[in-house]
Amino acid sequence: MADPLQSWNEGPAKSAIVAFVQARTDSASQDFVRPEDRIATFDQDGTLWVEHPMYVQLAFVLDRLAELAPQHREWKTSEPFKSALAGDLAAFANFTMADLETLVAASHAGMSTDDFRGIVRAWLAKAEHPRWKHPYTDLIYQPMLEVMQYLRANGFKVYIVTGGGQAFVRAYAERVYGTPPEHVIGSSLETKFEYNSDGKALLMRPPKLLLYNDLAGKPEDIYLFLGRPPLAAFGNSTGDQQMLEYTQAAGGARLMTLVLHDDPEREYSYGPESGQADTKFGAFTRALYDQAVSKGWTVASIKHDWKRVFAFEP
Amino acid sequence: MADPLQSWNEGPAKSAIVAFVQARTDSASQDFVRPEDRIATFDQDGTLWVEHPMYVQLAFVLDRLAELAPQHREWKTSEPFKSALAGDLAAFANFTMADLETLVAASHAGMSTDDFRGIVRAWLAKAEHPRWKHPYTDLIYQPMLEVMQYLRANGFKVYIVTGGGQAFVRAYAERVYGTPPEHVIGSSLETKFEYNSDGKALLMRPPKLLLYNDLAGKPEDIYLFLGRPPLAAFGNSTGDQQMLEYTQAAGGARLMTLVLHDDPEREYSYGPESGQADTKFGAFTRALYDQAVSKGWTVASIKHDWKRVFAFEP
Hints:
Oligomer: homodimer
Strand content of chain A: 5-15%
Shape of chain A: globular
Number of strands of chain A: 9
Radius of gyration of chain A: 20 Å
Order of helices and strands of chain A: HEHHHHHHEHEEEEHEHEHEH
Strand order of the largest sheet of chain A: 6-3-2-1-7-8-9
Number of helices of chain A: 12
Largest sheet of chain A: 7 strands, mixed
């Protein structure tokens, strides 16, 4: 049989993943669970695809604001729009949650749910990553896609649990990851049920945050959507810490995995050895690394554990 | 092959259900959809189980308040607790949403998610319906259970979309309906990620409403959880109207069904002919009946369409 994890080098990370799946699916194992209870959750940014030099969704926000700017001349002089339109990355680093909410509201709200999906898809069809000059959706990590497929082949339901926007990710998740919309849990605006001028029902997107699905929000929303903790959880930053803690607290054979970005040649380096992790929001800090080691979590090093990073590599 | 809807009499309701399933699953049909897109949603109270003389969950609230009352002597003199503890059904009818939230907060919050599930299960194990003297979970409608099973056998994912409490319904939905926790969408309290004194992660239930899953909340939450409208939706009251409208608005062969309570002998009568519907919250009103007729929705009459109502009937 072909190796389902062929983009992984042999090593402790690959072994831990395989051992976990065997323990949960072998009916002779004391950790066996029926397929109905096999749930795995994956962070997206930095875990399933590239998040540098900025979150893909932030690139979408900037392009969309630029597109809308002619109708909002006041943005030229008022923050956070002024910095966003100038593409001032240093300013971004200092944006508050309120600033980000303002930018998301201006770029993601005020249209129907169907219209928003169309806007995201049209953007993805033409946007490119500045380094690789590929569509962003090419920049998914082949080894992680193999883990998703391996889990599904073993009866797992595989969820994306992202701090990013649920509606944004749903616009491409099925095509890119094989993940249907109902398996995407993410930060969400409220929607509002309305009737159009023909009396037809539709949902609008008001500029109001309903779920902020990061940090403690991840286990809270996993419970909201699924009613129980996953058996396995994958992340890459402090934004995933609580999800991994919630997974482990449920006991039994659970798999907690962190992707470590330590390969500047093939991707990026911003882990605890890079000297920049502890100064950044949502990073793989030294404290998180120490927690992973002391709690027996798996650390998957891009440099050492991944044979290749992207499917388009030769 | 055995009739999958054997508790249904032949008639327009049964025919509509069968014709819908055939249209969506026959690969030669122009309405064929792949299994991934086959989604059906069911209201619970009055659609899947008995909701009279009061919602089952309200019976739980009253029993739980009675249990907690010795520690809350102030409830004896303050509303809405005073009426709730007295079991004053007439007072209930005039409770506001704020009153109900107060009662839910007092009876459903302040413990961990695991503890709440245990409380619900312990109550269900001993509580009985006052008329049939059966556990409430025996009072599910056998014909509707057959529809759920028939849809699942045809590749549908079957969701419960209830105005009742999500955590309450999840405590028994898999055992009673074969519906796993992640297929229950309901009104929800927030949860709060915390650590216990051993540093172990857990989720607590603060007394704060996050989702009110009734009326317009139903399509809004269907979108939140599933990202698209269902192909088929089943309800029995004005609380389900927007869900049915959202389903129909998506076009193609969709099935919108309302259960009509018109059988006082075998169950209850509170539809538009009963003289009480238009005075009650969440009822099958005359206006809803007229909408169903004009929009081509299916009305399933308990009296005429159901061969039997409960599985325990001879």
